[in-house]
Amino acid sequence: MNVRMHTLTTALAICVLAGASGCSTMSSRDKNTAVGAGIGAVGGAVLTGGSGIGTVGGAAIGGLIGNQVGK
Q1: pTM recorded for the entire structure
Q2: Number of domains in the chain
């Protein structure tokens, strides 16, 4: 299970970085929202042991925080 979680976390981090690098036309606030959602998803997955609900919840909370940072 530990190797599986590490693989999931790494894959999510790569997706976030790849997605953020292709967003040159996005505003700073939009980028903060996307990065916050990615970090939140990884954090939620790690904290809940890979639970889908934890991953989605982490992404939602992270996106909200990232959006508010840009204000």
Answers
A1: 0.66
A2: 1
